[in-house]
Amino acid sequence: MKSLRRLILIFAIGLALPLGYLVVQSYRSLEAEEAATLGFFAEALFDEMQESAAAVIRREESRPIDAYADPAATALSGLPVEDYIRGYFQNNPDGSFQTPHRNAPRAGSQEQALRLAELEEANRLFNRKRAEGTDRIRPEVIDTVPDEKRKDPAGFAGRYLDMSRSQRSKSYLGEKDNRLETVTPGQASSLASIEKKQAAAMPPAAAGGTGPVPRPADAQAPAAQETAAGAAPSRPAELSREGEVQGYQAEVAPFQSVFIDDGLVFTFRRILIDGRMYRQGFVFQLDAFLAGLIRSHFTAQPMARFTHLRLRAVDQGREVRAVEAGGVADRPRVVLNRTFPPPFAFLRATLSCDRVPPSTGRSTLNLALWALAGVISLGLLAIYHSAKKVVDFSERQTRFVSSVTHELKTPLTNIRMYIEMLEQGMARDPEREQEYFRILQSEGARLSRLIENVLELSKLEKKRREPNLRPGRFDDVLAEVKTLMQASLNQEGFVLKVDSRLTRPFRYDREIMVQVLINLIENSVKFGKGSGTKAITVRLRERGGRVMVEVSDTGPGIPRQDLNKVFNDFYRADNAVARAAGGTGIGLALVKRFVALSGGKVSAVNNDGPGCTIRIEF
User: Fold this and answer.
1) What is the mean pLDDT of residues 485-495?
2) pTM over 0.85, yes/no
3) What is the residue range of 539's domain?
């Protein structure tokens, strides 16, 4: 058994190693799939935010070039649609300030006055940034798709789509390159006339707080300075038949953003027309802008319950504002970052999660693993018990051969000894001679029953024994058993009692029942020789439509752990009484097979007092 247990242990370890590796890899794949799924929907969330910002930029790009300066432009004269936009204005080449809100219908309201003051202050601060050269976004923040995102480490989207083209298309919100737009002379003169009127009517301080931006003595210096920024001088677009100018080519640059202060951002476009640079755009409040993105696209989403979103604004590498929402992520397992494309390149989004929602395949995998573990464990246990039974059976067979040899040898030795004594005339009187004959008959019957039991067991194993069931009251069986066993009972000093309370006949095989009772009585005699009271009782009862045949003795009984094993083939209890009594271990096994063949069942119980009872039910 030790070698068997060792082999099973080696087999279990050999099976567990590849299965363990498979399980670990399966869970890692599930974790990667869960993280990739979260990343996929996080990217969709970021895309929605970008799209809402891009919609604003596309709307502003579609406005005519004089919409930001002309007070008659009713589209921009009222309050902005977005609550985070404070207003629209144009910064002229000389630093002066124009806005369509100045002559709006509600221009006299307190709210409108407050916004006009904010826009004027924004223009003054923007002029300072123009003078300092800090009115441009640093080029290092233009790359909006980090390398780790391009590589797609989770491998989720990359298996199905080539995302490189869509990532390139998102490198700018709106138009990425400068464009040429035909401007009518009326639009050009409108910009210039409004600028001239404001310059003549307002003092320098009103033009933006610091006055116009200083220019070099050369009258062409402003145009040369703006041209160096990447713009080309405009030229007439088309001539009429008489040679008059019908329009100008204005160069319109993409929108860009610059921080007015830590709370305000100016998003504008550069217009180069007739050698002069105008800057047109809108001023928005950063806190309201970030909060609006979270409120519109994240707060109501299911992922807000288990993810944490952080939007932050970065100016020249310095974080100036941050807004957070969602669940807590103290130890995030997944962190996803997004840098928005220009003109919102200052905006960073970070989505983190420390409890990724489990994949639907995880429960299936868990169930399959538990089932697999159970099947393997039960299989190994079944193999072990089956092998153990085979080994135990083999050992019992070995003991059976030894016991049969001993049991055959003992009566043969006795028979041979008494025959020699009779031959030598040691029985000098008829009484002793008759005693020797009775011993010879008893040993011969014992030998005959042993051989018959072995033959019967062989027939039962090969299913060659068919029962001959006939109705009767069992009296013939009891009478024959008394006749056959009386000598042995008298010799050992046992008393056989019969207590029958049957009122009707039942079907049984007479020969089988004789052999069953003889085996049971012999067992009681063999194990009860040392008892003080030597009595064997055979009872017959009717209970619930069934017939009960019980054989009780006053011997030592059966150990509790062996009550269900004594009917197994070749089984003998491992105690001093069993070893002293000897036997082959096939008597009770034969009883069980005979009773099952007759359609009954057999069981063993210990008495309240000494001895045990073998109960047969038909």
Assistant:
1) 85
2) no
3) 468-618
